[in-house]
Amino acid sequence: MSANTINGKELAHKLREEMAEEVSRLRSEGIVPHLTVIIVGDDPASKSYVNGKKKASAQTGISSEVIEMPSSLSQDRLLEKIEELNNDEAVHGILVQLPLPEHIDEQLVIESISPYKDVDGFHPFNIGKMMTGDAAFLPCTPYGILTMLHSYDIPISGKHAVVLGRSNIVGKPVGQLLLNENATVTYCHSRTDNLYDYTRSADILIAAVGKPNMISADDIKEGSVIIDVGINRQEDGSLTGDVDFASAAEKASHITPVPKGVGPMTITMLLQNTIKAAKGLSRRGG
């Protein structure tokens, strides 16, 4: 048996083409979806992510701007800038690139963004609506994972989904989204006893812990679906996930590669959230 590869790069390209058509229609109606990204400091990884978001926005016709601020920026000044953007009707989506300098309270910053412009899906308002299954801006990586499962017609209802990792960005929300779709969800983490007993029972395994190749063929169930969220840089500079792709692919039914798996979908769902925000604001007269 050899697994079907879930190609996130190809799927993202297809979805962005569809988004470009939708943005074109919105523009013809006088609505220009606009995303503003704030980056504080000069972290190279953050700058790379932000540049990727700007490029992807341009590909779909979404207007975007990047506001660069020094790492010495005060928390109050950052909150003032966010409030300006909250009140700017031309801005539909606001994203503050994390991590922030230590003197700035990240949670306070997240909560200061209007929940109607929270295209990262991290505001407690949107997290709460996600928990209850209401319409909300979903966190981008979990949203991307769900979209991948749907796009490849992978059954979720009634399946045992094991989530390896409990971060607020990926682990917790992706488990909730799967639960909302009637999966039976088990969360595992660094303190889970007999961890691999759980991974071997998973119909769907979400690996999101940041430990290279910690899951191999011996640790998974025959015919399972493996979604590898890990991105780990090896000594030779190459990237690998949390799953040993070569061995797991011989046993799984579907598997995501690293790179070209979950990563491209994250930015794509950010764009999708921005379009949704633009449409939502237009309905409210904003």
TrEMBL record:
GO CC entries: cytosol
GO biological process, any: tetrahydrofolate interconversion
UniProt cross-references to InterPro entries, sorted A to Z: Aminoacid_DH-like_N_sf, NAD(P)-bd_dom_sf, THF_DH/CycHdrlase, THF_DH/CycHdrlase_cat_dom, THF_DH/CycHdrlase_CS, THF_DH/CycHdrlase_NAD-bd_dom
Pfam family, one: THF_DHG_CYH
Keywords: Amino-acid biosynthesis, Histidine biosynthesis, Hydrolase, Methionine biosynthesis, Multifunctional enzyme, NADP, One-carbon metabolism, Oxidoreductase, Purine biosynthesis
Keyword Ligase recorded: no
Pathway assigned in UniProt: One-carbon metabolism; tetrahydrofolate interconversion
Database matches in PROSITE patterns: THF_DHG_CYH_2
SUPFAM superfamilies: Aminoacid dehydrogenase-like, N-terminal domain (SSF53223), NAD(P)-binding Rossmann-fold domains (SSF51735)
EC number: 1.5.1.5, 3.5.4.9
Catalytic activity: (6R)-5,10-methylene-5,6,7,8-tetrahydrofolate + NADP(+) = (6R)-5,10-methenyltetrahydrofolate + NADPH; (6R)-5,10-methenyltetrahydrofolate + H2O = (6R)-10-formyltetrahydrofolate + H(+)
Domain Tetrahydrofolate dehydrogenase/cyclohydrolase catalytic: 6-120
GO molecular function: methenyltetrahydrofolate cyclohydrolase activity; methylenetetrahydrofolate dehydrogenase (NADP+) activity
Binding site for NADP(+): 165-167, 231
Function: Catalyzes the oxidation of 5,10-methylenetetrahydrofolate to 5,10-methenyltetrahydrofolate and then the hydrolysis of 5,10-methenyltetrahydrofolate to 10-formyltetrahydrofolate.
Similarity comment: family membership: Belongs to the tetrahydrofolate dehydrogenase/cyclohydrolase family.
Oligomeric and partner information: Homodimer.
NCBIfam families from the UniProt entry: PRK10792.1 (NF008058), PRK14186.1 (NF010783)
Protein name as it appears in the record: Bifunctional protein FolD
Source organism per UniProt: Lentibacillus amyloliquefaciens
